[in-house]
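Input (structure):
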């Protein structure tokens, strides 16, 4: 048994250092299942990133279809900055990748910023998998070059005007609990949405530590006292303009301090309800196996269902990553079910680079999935019984299958097969059209016949000037693939303008 597991998980890796300067060639066989999540290679390379300049390299990939995206990290000492890319190419085609200084992501730095951009020492190239099946891949990064002059300006693309389409369901996530901006009321927000031909809104009204409505389950944000119940205001506008309202709850994820009442994190820490990461530190995430956390998540969803809404919407209905939870509540619950763990938590921890998975780790993957699914199932059973007119939906990850089970413990294919959900909104946020097409195709399969309204990540598309063109392309792709609608992330004033320009009649 052990031998078999090892043989299946064997990963061949080659990083060859070509004679030509600043060029690297990588190849790997990736085994079936959810591990490894990525294949990565490190190379030494000294360079600076000039302030107004840019770096370029020529990229090819022998087998692009099974890849989720590619990441290039630049290393300076023990610090990393990163750039993710999804090139619009077919397998074997070459494309020049251009990275300006502002394109680099600094979130892995200790303070999220970098003062000195000189003295980088190495590069890390990663391929993230999109599919569960085994595949082989070869990639080249050639002619890595630092340019002192600014990157050439690429002309803005013109957005196509889409033909009208009857009975298309158009949904929009709205992140702010008080409307699309500080200045726009719910009445204005919903009126504008309706004028843009949208049928449904998904307003984010609560996190574990704060609700923007009168709640007996969650702590109520001070905003409610000053400005009134925001769910009531949103619902009133939705009724007035004929837009359906699916209240969005952020599950488990406490988020930044503006998203919860004062003292919430300390209170949860004291009660032992925070998830503990693989380094033994507590996090701003509620432990999904803690009975009080589970109870609160279920009760909060049921309380929303009772408020006369059209639907309730799960989000962050998962773990943050493979890095949690290893608290004592989890240890006891796991050992009660599966027996004593020889070395806790070492024997159950996985990470994105893990090349094989032991029987115990497999059980821990299942344990984490079961903790999340338990909440979805209980909410679904109770809502179906007590509020049969309320629909149940979720924002879900973009791969489905074993990948999403192993990484974040979100078994959303099961939730669809078991009909716990009425519809799903996969967060298929992509800049590249071919990657978007593959992503929604995967989602369609994983949704197993349950209604699926793919997410279009308008707010996170790049470059900014091309966003209206990308919106049109992606809506057309959704139509071409046979979906009945889509969900736009997220409704802010710039998104509102783009949607109005594209869809108002
Ligand atoms: Zn835990």
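Output (sequence):
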């Amino acid at each position: 048994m052990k031998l078999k597991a090892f043989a299946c998980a064997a990963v061949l890796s080659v990083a060859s250092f070509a004679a030509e300067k600043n060029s690297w060639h990588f190849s790997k066989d990736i085994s079936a299942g959810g591990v490894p999540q990525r294949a990565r290679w490190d190379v030494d390379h000294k360079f600076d990133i000039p302030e107004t300049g840019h770096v370029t390299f020529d990229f090819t990939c022998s087998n692009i279809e099974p890849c989720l995206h590619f990441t290039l990290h630049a290393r300076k000492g023990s610090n990393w900055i990163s750039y993710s890319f999804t090139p619009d190419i077919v397998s074997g085609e070459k494309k020049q990748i251009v990275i300006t200084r502002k394109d680099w992501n600094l979130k892995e730095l200790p303070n999220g910023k970098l003062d000195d951009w000189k003295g980088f020492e190495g590069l890390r190239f990663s391929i993230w998998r999109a599919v569960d099946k085994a595949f082989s891949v070869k990639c080249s990064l050639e002619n890595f070059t630092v340019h002192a002059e600014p990157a050439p300006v690429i002309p803005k693309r013109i957005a196509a005007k889409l033909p009208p389409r009857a009975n298309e369901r158009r949904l929009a996530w709205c992140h702010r609990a008080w409307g699309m901006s500080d200045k726009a009321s719910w009445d204005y927000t919903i009126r504008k949405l309706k004028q843009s031909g949208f049928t449904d809104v998904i307003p984010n009204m609560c996190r574990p530590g704060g609700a923007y409505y009168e709640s007996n389950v969650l702590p109520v944000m001070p905003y409610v006292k000053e400005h009134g119940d925001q769910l009531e205001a949103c619902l009133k506008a939705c009724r007035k303009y004929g837009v359906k309202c699916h209240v969005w709850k952020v599950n488990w994820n406490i988020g930044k301090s503006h998203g919860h009442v004062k003292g919430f994190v300390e209170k949860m820490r004291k009660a032992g309800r925070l998830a503990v990461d693989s380094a033994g530190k507590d996090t701003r995430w509620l432990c999904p196996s803690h009975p009080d956390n589970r109870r609160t998540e279920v009760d909060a969803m049921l309380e929303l269902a009772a408020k006369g809404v059209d639907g309730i919407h799960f989000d962050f209905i998962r773990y943050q990553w493979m890095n949690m939870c290893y608290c004592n509540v989890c240890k006891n619950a796991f050992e009660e079910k599966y027996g004593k763990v020889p070395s806790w938590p070492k024997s159950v921890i996985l990470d994105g680079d893990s090349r094989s998975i032991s029987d115990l780790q497999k059980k821990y993957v299942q344990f984490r999935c079961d903790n999340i699914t338990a909440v979805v199932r209980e909410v679904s059973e109770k809502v179906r019984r007590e509020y049969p007119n309320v629909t149940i939906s979720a924002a879900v990850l973009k791969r489905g299958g074993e990948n999403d089970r192993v990484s974040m413990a979100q078994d959303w294919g099961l939730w669809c097969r078991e009909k716990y959900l009425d519809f799903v909104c996969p967060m298929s946020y992509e800049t590249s059209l071919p990657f978007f097409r593959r992503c929604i195709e995967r989602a369609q399969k994983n949704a197993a016949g349950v209604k699926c309204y793919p997410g279009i990540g308008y707010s996170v598309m790049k470059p900014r000037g091309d966003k209206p063109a990308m919106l049109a392309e992606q809506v057309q792709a959704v139509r071409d693939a046979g979906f009945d609608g889509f969900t736009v992330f997220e409704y802010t004033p710039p998104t509102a303008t783009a949607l109005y320009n594209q869809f108002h009649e």
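Notes: The first strand starts at residue 13 and ends at 17. The pocket of zinc ion is lined by residues 275, 287, 289, 325, 327, 329-330 (CB under 6 Å).
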